[in-house]
């Protein structure tokens, strides 16, 4: 399974950006998908996730500003980010859980920079 993220870039504070993640390979093994981020000098943390059943979960820091949506057939996931803040600056990683316990997949990160 391969994950390919896109959509990162430079945006001003208060602006919006949408990240997109596509999958390829044996995508039938994918269960849930989500986005993580890693700011400079910090650990990678969960931003948002969506299960195969459509349930969503968000980090407190992005609730009300970010919206995750996924296509459970195509195994794609988007992250719509609004009202961006400088503290949202990070490398964002697409993530997928496998139906096989203990297995997970990561895409290469896409950089989001929020700066004036």
- Please, how many helices? 0
Strand content: over 45%
Structural class: mainly beta
Report low-confidence residues grouped into runs of 5 or more. Answer: none
Shape: globular
Portion in helices: under 10%
Rounded to the nearest angstrom, the radius of gyration is: 13 Å
Mean pLDDT: 95
How many runs of DSSP E, i.e. beta strands?
11
> Oligomer, anyone?
single chain
Walk me through what this model shows.
The chain is mostly beta strands and 116 residues long. It contains no helices and 11 strands. The strands form 2 sheets. Strands 2, 4, 5, 6, 9, 10 and 11 form a 7-stranded mixed β-sheet that branches. Strands 1-3-8-7 form a 4-stranded antiparallel β-sheet, with no helix packed on it. The chain is globular.
Brief write-up:
This protein is mainly β and 116 residues long. It has no helices and eleven strands.
